[in-house]
Amino acid sequence: FFFSPVLQILERARTMGCSQSKRSTDAAITSKKRGSGDQNGDDFMSNAEIQSRIESIEETKKATFGGLSVRYAYLTQRGYYPDDAHKPNQDAYSVTHPFEEKETDAFFGVYDGHGRDGDKCAQYVRDNLPQLVTKYVIRAKMKEKANTLVGDTENNEVIQLKKEQIQAACQKAHIECNRGIRRNVHIDDSLSGTTAVSVYLHGERNRMTVCNVGDSRAILGQMIQRNGKNDGEDDANPSSSENGNSSSLRAQPLSRDQTPYRRDERVRIRAAGGRILSLDQLEGLEPVNNDDEEMDKQWDNNDDSELVLGEELDEGGDPPRVWSPHGEYPGTAFTRSLGDAIAEELGVFAEPEMITRDITSQDKIIVLASDGVFEFLTNQSVIDICAKFSDPLEACRAVVAESYELWLQYELRTDDITMICIFVDDVASDNNSVSHSLYESENTALGDEASAKVAFDLVDGYIPVEGSKPVRNRLSKEKSQALEKMKTKLTKNNGELEDLENVDINELITEKSSEEKAHIAEAIRASVMFQNITDIQREMIFGVMESIPVKKGEWVIRQDTVGDRFYIVDDGKFEVRIVPDGETDTRGDGGNIVHVYDGSRENHAHPSFGELALMYSAPRAASIIAQTDGHLWALHRFAFRKVLLDKPERKELVQVLQRLTHFKDQDEEELKNVADSMEEITYGSGDTIVKQGDAGDCFFVISSGHCECTQEENNGEEIRTELKIDEYFGEEVLSGADEYYKATLKALSTTTCWKLEKASLKKTMASFRYKRNKVETNIA
């Protein structure tokens, strides 16, 4: 009774209106053999190969789903992996409409694979999940039809399923899809799998159902209401405001990350026998806090509070993971997935969390994206970037480019990055009121089992954000160590690093037009560096930005040279080239192309690069060469530091310096200059920062993490103390009381320090006193 029409519809669906990511094949992967690493070998990537990493819809597509008029686009970019240059893109996506043979419905999905067969897992789910959702929705409608008393019902389209029935169908589809991966003889899912986030649009009812398994995300850009009126609704472009200072769209989560950051997920995993540890904790390099597990055991399910693990475990990109009690596997950083057969025994299952809500006229942007987007960007940053564009394809390009660039800034590699962006242009038959479509009852259609309950059934569709993976804003320990290694090499080869402290900020200030300010504001809006600046600080940044015209072929940055500027691409294309560590640039062209920054005034695309120069006096990790004529805006590191001197972390650093005997004669203004000259550096757990008896030239203040200080006495006895945040080490070498360190300092966890070099202190103080004397002389 049920199977024949279902199979017929599924077969027709295979050939109707389905867009999806390309399938990677073994032939495609093996056709490019990795070279030996020589700069003139096979690892070189042409511009065409760089572009081949990016796959997208050719142009934005318009569609009408019942009462919804939308435009959508999608884009995926393969990651950059220096040790595996031709690793396939393990992300996948699908766009299916008509869906379930209905022009009013559509299904959008993003799938992020992991493990050796991660690409195959993601492609399997892409190919099968939409069809399985269709199958179970049709079955539910046919069952409802069989139970109805209406005798003249001719087709399924008049049957409207309740929220509980739709979510039951979606859950069954995910579970069966997971079983399908397990049965597939071409996929080894023992340590491979995929996440899945999807939006099922029910156009006839202006409604959507969001399903999530893992840590990819769905978010909504919703119009902000002020005084009963939609903010910006009278503007030609309501998503932006003057100078781009703020967006009139507020980001609302439509899904919640399923990771060990969430207390409820940790409790569930531990109940199944799993362990929750970071890699450093697993290897014994970082202490395990047993109190965390005890607090989780005592947790009341009605308590929404979360134990925040992010600051303790993820400073250097080392998140909490799921491990077997019997060995160092599987190590998943998420608590739900499709595939992952071994992890499933530890509670990492494929049951989705779901939410169904109405789409109103206040809902403007829907984004589905893999976690590569959200590693360094907040939900609000993603919506802010999208809001700058009238074309969702341009929004996809901008978000993916910004994410990719931040990966290059903070890591030695990048993740695969995939995004679907939907602009909601019109919602028919809507009374412009805030949605109250979510039912408040439990999901009785799924049975009595606790695991079958829908996790989110909240009024207005608001999802709690507690327990979400924190956005990273620090270098990974590997990147930090690589920069320090390059800096040491450069110092040995070229003497002391360039002194930037003698730059006069007044010489950098120039007047900017409103249009120029708007361009600059667009570029810095989503940058981590400028998240919390004040309006006064923003105006100062506008003033010190330098206008730099660039000709095709001109080198903007050379790898291994000291960086002193941050750049915004106003217009033009710029290649990113890298010479791998230990190799030389035998061709003289800067090495392999790994990325291209594409700026356009017309498309409001303004990528940026060189952010690390604002924080660290470190050598450039890549070369930047103009591919076309173009124009850049540049911000000098000294100017940036002066503008942001009053940020809280610098104020706290000044307070620490005031406690030192060495600085007892310095006033607050002098100490601000000292604090401004200090640099951040990150050490991994177990790293030795300094050794007792070594010649000393640096002073350290701990800003996060903790260290062990070990001093060996003449009689062989060791004195051990622990240093925590805002405690310091190395004052003896700074003051000149001793030329050698009196103890060994070792990081007990991922630790970030403020570092002050003795030579830098002398220059800073000499420069400051010279300028002060000059001012006093002029006054006199």
What would your notes on this structure say?
The chain is of the alpha+beta class. The protein contains 22 helices and 34 strands. Helix 1 packs across helix 4 (about 120-145), helix 12 (about 380-385) packs across helix 13 (about 390-410) and helix 19 crosses helix 20 (about 670-675). It starts with a helix and ends with a helix. The relative contact order is 0.10. Residues about 1-15, about 25-45, about 230-245, about 305-315, about 430-460 and about 490-500 have low confidence and may be disordered.
How many separate helices? 22
In total, how many beta strands?
Answer: 34
Gyration radius, rounded:
28 Å
> What percent of residues adopt helix (DSSP H or I)?
25-40%
Q: Roughly what is the average pLDDT, rounded to an integer?
A: 77
Q: Assess the beta-strand content as a share of residues.
A: 15-25%
Which stretches of 5+ consecutive residues score pLDDT under 50? Answer: 1-16, 25-45, 232-246, 307-315, 430-460, 489-501
Largest sheet: 7 strands, antiparallel
Broad structural category: alpha+beta
> How far do the termini sit from each other?
100 Å
Quaternary arrangement of the chains shown? Answer: single chain
Broad shape: globular
Secondary-structure blueprint:
Blueprint: H1 3-13, E1 18-20, H2 26-30, H3 47-52, E2 54-56, E3 61-65, E4 68-77, E5 91-96, E6 105-114, H4 118-147, H5 163-183, E7 193-202, E8 207-213, E9 217-223, E10 225-226, E11 229-230, E12 249-253, H6 263-271, E13 275-277, H7 279-282, H8 290-297, H9 310-313, E14 321-323, E15 330-332, E16 338-339, H10 341-344, E17 353-358, E18 363-369, H11 371-374, H12 379-387, H13 392-410, E19 417-427, H14 477-494, H15 514-524, H16 535-544, E20 546-550, E21 555-557, E22 565-578, E23 592-599, E24 608-609, H17 612-615, E25 623-626, E26 630-636, H18 637-643, H19 648-657, H20 668-677, E27 679-683, E28 688-690, E29 698-704, E30 707-712, E31 718-723, E32 728-729, H21 731-735, E33 744-747, E34 751-757, H22 758-779
Antiparallel strand pairs: 1-5, 2-4, 3-4, 4-19, 5-6, 6-7, 7-8, 7-16, 8-17, 9-12, 9-18, 10-11, 13-14, 14-15, 18-19, 20-26, 21-25, 22-23, 22-24, 22-25, 22-26, 27-34, 28-33, 29-32, 29-34, 30-31, 30-33
Helix pairs in contact: 1-4, 4-5, 12-13, 19-20, 20-22
